[in-house]
Amino acid sequence: MNKPVQPMSSLSLKLPKADRSVETYRLAASRTFPAKLEGPLNRIAFSAVHTVVDPFADNDPWLSVAVDWDKTIAFREHVWDLGLGVAEAMDTAQRGMGLDWPTSLELITRSVGAAKRRNALVFSGAGTDHLAVEDAKNLDDVIRAYEEQISAVEKVGGRIILMASRALAKLGRNADDYAKVYDRVLSQVREPVIIHWLGDMFDPALTGYWGTGDLDRAMDTAVAIINGNAAKVDGVKVSLLDKQREIDMRRRLDTRIKMYTGDDFNYAELIAGDEQGFSHALLGIFDAIAPAASYALSRLAAGDEAGFHDVLGPTVPLSRHIFKAPTRFYKTGVVFMAYLNGHQDHFTMVGGQESTRSTLHLAELFRLADKAGLLANPELATQRMKTVLATHGIES
């Protein structure tokens, strides 16, 4: 299935360049990947997935959310078919950037229900985002907020990804404050959770998480809390975009605890691992590259590490582009890929976030996706790219 086809000489379009010129870009030879998982995997891999909005809703996108539930669940089924798990209602779904807690809970409820019907893997984000940061007066407020969301997710049969808390980042002054919150919350969960350490490049409101701006001390605190609650922790997702820090933390974790890479810059080599271990995956970029990720992981499980890197390696430049600073706007690239690949019929996002990246950024995304063989239907992707360019005044 993963075979190059003949170059598509008839497919080209005009794309803008940084020097204000326009080039005629000819698409490269394409690759095809299986639509379903080929063989068992030896890594656990989650895709943090996006939310599809209803473009026909008569709402104010900056103030309210209108979800296309059918398309949203259909995309999750696409991910499950590929053998990947779904990380639901995380920052890729625009949690904290337009997706509020009531809508998140409905999303979690629907996704958990769909997963149960097909015995698929889903973990869901529980945090404190319904508690406005300015209303959080003490650590007990943060604990209660976590407890409320955890209870709601568990009530619908969901497994927990314990998200970082903006309120805790505001109030937590030291390691003891973080230990108080996490020890209390973890003592109550029904099943082991995945703890998410989200760096401030993804959310500036999380600056100084774990009680310090010193990342070495922050890691000491995180490792102590996590290892101290090992029976309640399935794994840790680290989103710091720092390969060595993830490796260092991975080697310090209790052997019962998995490391899930959240490094959208270096995931291929972190998943492959080294003589001392490897990372599983919980990645936003897997939303955009799910077929390639699934096939690459199946090659790795089959002992074909060269095949794994051959497929996944070319996706890394695209991921680094999508997640470039300001990193929090990466969701725009993820949804744009879903539009190009036909998973939704529009390029419209929660909160109007389709406007957070430039036309030049989207044009380069198209080039990199093509070079990695990630355009599932090149003709459709080309036509949709032309449509977006035309709305920005660029004739192609």
TrEMBL record:
This is Dihydrodipicolinate synthase family protein. It holds the Pfam family DUF993. InterPro entries: Aldolase_TIM, DUF993.
